[in-house]
Structures are given as C-alpha cells and as structure tokens.
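FAQ: What does the model actually see?

It sees only this:
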Amino acid sequence: MEEVFEKVGSEVIFSFQLFGDTVNINNAVFVCFIVSIILIVLSALLKRTLKADNPGKIQVCVEWLVEIVNNLCKTSAGHHGKAFVPYIGTLLVFLGLANIIGLLNFIPGLHMYPPTKDINVTATLALISIIVVLGAGFRYKGLKGWAKTLIDPMPVVAPFKLMEYITKPLSLALRLFGNVFAAFIIMEIIYSVVPVPFVSSPFSAYFDIFDGVLQAFIFTYLTIVYIGEAVE
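And it is asked to produce this:
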C-alpha cells in the first residue's frame, strides 16, 4: 500500500530557472506535454495521408469520431455548435488519451500515469471550459443579453444562476478527478496483489480503458451542454 500511494504523489521530473525563480515540472504536467506532443504528431501524420476517395481504415475511424463531435455540438448548441467543434474535439481526444496513457507502461522502464488523477489538472481543464461557456454567452447574446438571462424568470434567481458558474466547474473537476483517481488506486492495488497480466487484464480493460474513455466523454458532453445552455 505504501508503494501504491507513493505513485499518487506529485513527483518533480525536472526543474529550470525562469526570471530568477525555479520552475518545477511534476509528473502530471510532464505527461500532459507528452500527450500533447503525441496528438500533434499523429495529427500531422494523418493530415498527409488524407484521401477524398478510398480512405483507409484509420481515416474512416477519425471521420467517425469527427462526425460524433459534430453531431454532439449541433444537438447541444444548435446552429452555433459548429464554432465549438475544434475545442470539444480537442478536449475529447486529449482527455481520452490522457486517461489511458498508463497502458503504455508495458514498455520496460516507462512509468506514465494519468495526469487527470491530479486535481490541479482537472481543475484547470474545468476552468478553461467554464471560460469558454462564459465567452459563448457573451459572444452570442452580448453582455446585456447575458445579464438578462440571470434574472429570468425573476430577479430572485440571479444569485443561484451566478453560483452555477462556480458549481459547474467544481463538479466537472471533482467528477473527473474522483473517478480517475479511484480507478488508478484500484488498478495499482490489483497489480500489486495479482501481478499476472492474464488475471489483471479484465480489470484493466474496465478501469484503464472503458472508465477512462467514459469519463473523457462525460466531461466533454457536460461542457458542450453548458455551452448550449449559454447560447440558447
């Protein structure tokens, strides 16, 4: 159990000096960099192989994912949804890969864990999402129109609607963190008790893959729902 909880801690990978101050890069930030680099490289490689006729299997899978994101945004945000496809799509693939990055640990000497088991990462993503929600309301309704929604249907509800801009990102951050953190702890305990891959693989399929992808979708889905509420 001590070894399990040691992996939960925030380990400093490297440090550097910036304007006279020491900046520490911990494992969560480092893995976020790795996930971003992987997505950028894959996107650049895929762009070179895109075909209008006879697309390959990989392109078909990517087009299927893009179609899901397009329909999700259109359903939740109506004709304004197209403007949010890039953010929602990026959020989905980033969280999806970040949540299952631990599967790469089959490579000897590699120790990578989901950065979303760190509350700082999930809180930052939730903060970015709520800023997008606020920006969407200001853009499509204007400041005056957005302010009117706070007192609809009566002024007494204004404090509660303002409070939603605190509770929504809080729930997004805690839901993602809690599920990924719990799944990580459970799998580490299973690995320590049952080190045989054949026995532990069914648990990994659920907690590492299914639950990781599911939590990425839930976070993304709630984000676009909140955006839809802001622009309706």
